[in-house]
Design goal:
By secondary structure, this protein is mainly alpha-helical. The protein has one domain. 51% of the residues lie in helices and 0% in strands. The chain contains three helices and no strands.
Length: 73
């Protein structure tokens, strides 16, 4: 899964590149790390392996919700 900040679905890599928001992405990375979640800094990706547990996915979801809520205030 890749995090992209866009109000509409993207159709290609050029559109994805145009949607990069460096300051927001840096803030998200720091906020995720502060909540025990590490995402790939070069693509904003969350990689899932066979060892990924449901609890890991739940943590990601909770962290994302907390961060979005905090940034929205």
């Amino acid at each position: 899964m890749e995090l992209v900040f866009s109000p509409t679905p993207l159709r290609n890599g050029a559109q994805a590149e145009a949607k990069h928001r460096d300051q927001l992405e840096r803030a998200m990375h720091i906020a995720f790390v502060n909540r025990g979640v590490l995402i790939a800094p070069f693509h904003n990706m969350m990689l899932v392996s066979p060892n990924t547990r449901e609890a890991d996915i739940d943590l990601l979801g909770r962290a994302f919700e907390e961060i979005v809520t905090a940034l929205g205030t």
